[in-house]
Description:
The chain is α+β, with helices and mostly antiparallel strands and about 190 residues long. It has five helices and six strands, in the order H-E-E-H-E-E-H-E-E-H-H. It has helices spanning about 1-30, 55-60, 80-90, 115-150, 155-190, and strands at about 45-50, 55, 60-65, 70-75, 95-100, 105. The strands form two sheets. It has a four-stranded antiparallel β-sheet.
Amino acid sequence: MFRGNAMKDEVLKEVEERMGKAIKALERELGRVRTGRASAGLLDVVRVDAYGTQLSLKEVASISVPEAKLIVIQPWDLTLIENIEKAILKSELGLTPMNDGKVIRLAIPPLTEERRKELVKLIKRMAEDSRVAIRNIRRDANETLKGFEKDKLLSEDDFHRAQDDVQKKTDDYVKKVDERTQEKEKEILEV
C-alpha cells in the first residue's frame, strides 16, 4: 500500500495547491473592488497603449498612495501621460485623473450607501464563486481517490482517511474565503 499512500499524498498536495490558487484569485478580485480608500491594486486592470502595445500601468509608471483618498501615478516616460490618462478614463473605475504634466492624481471619492450595498453584493458573489471552485476541487480529488480505491491502489481505510483529509482542507479554505470576504465587507461598509 506504500504506492497508494504516495498517490494519496500527491492528490492532497494538488488539492492544497489548487485551493491556494483559488484563494489568491479571490484576493486579486477583492483587491480590485473600490472601497472608498486609495489602493494601488485598484489600477491592476488598467492597460496603457504604450510603444505600440498594451502594457499594465505598473509597467509604465510608479504608483503611490500618499494618503487614504489619493493615488499618485508618475510615468517613467512623460510622453505617455496622456495615454495613461485615457486608459484610466476607459477603465470603468469611475475615477477622474488630474494631470499636471508630470504626475497624475486620482482622488478617491467617498462611496454612496447604494454603491456600498452593490459592492457588498458583488464581493459576496465573488466569494460564492470561490467556494464553488473549492468544492469542485474537492469533488475532483474524491473522484481520483475513488479511482485509486477501485483499482486497489488504496485500501478502504486509506481511502476514507484521504477523503476526510480532503474535506478538512476544503473546510479550511472555505473558512479563508469567508474571512477574506468579511474583511472586505467591513472595509466597504466603513464610512
